[in-house]
Every structure is written in C-alpha cells, then in structure tokens.
Design a protein that fits this description.
Layout: H1 2-11, H2 16-43, H3 50-75, H4 80-96
Helix pairs in contact: 3-4
Length: 97
C-alpha cells in the first residue's frame, strides 16, 4: 500500500485523500467479497467435497501469483538482478501451491 500511495503522490501530488479513500473502500469491499466467496464455496459442497473445493480454490488463487511473477520476469528478463529475483519469486509461488 505504501508503494501505491507513494507512486500516486508522485504522479498527482493532490491525490492523497482520494488514494486513502479508495484504499479504504477497496479493503471493505474485498473483505465482503472474500467472506461471500468462502460461504459459497462451503455452501455448495457436501461434507466430503469441502476439502476438494478449498484445495481447488487455493490452487487457482495461487496461480495468480505465479502468473504475476511470470509477467514481472518477462518484463525484466534482460536485467540480471531482476532475473534472479523473478526466478526466485516464481519458484516460491510454485512451492506454495
């Protein structure tokens, strides 16, 4: 959040209140969506399927991090330091699956 706030303030110096308000709204809405997603995931599954549904969700959720790290690696492929960091990030994300 600090990086986003710093970046937004460098782009538009008078955006401080907007960035803070947008972050608060995003946090509240994300919390509501996360709760609804968990409720739906457990409501549609039978007792024997709940672990499978949770595992599928976490697999898809963590693949987002792998894709994000791959994009970052692709954009910084010619930089030596970023290449090493990108590979470490991708492999750590894959280990979390």
């Amino acid at each position: 959040m600090n990086r986003l706030f710093f970046s937004a303030m460098n782009i538009h110096p008078h955006a401080g209140a907007f960035v803070i308000a947008a972050g608060a709204i995003l946090g509240i809405c994300a919390g509501l969506l996360w709760t609804a997603q968990g409720s739906l995931m457990l409501a549609y599954a039978t007792e024997s399927q709940k672990g499978k549904f949770i595992g599928i969700f976490w697999g898809i959720f963590n693949m987002g991090a792998v894709v994000g790290a791959s994009v970052s690696l692709g954009e910084n492929f010619h930089s030596t330091v970023c290449l090493v960091i990108g590979f470490c990030r991708i492999f750590s994300d894959l280990l979390n699956l």
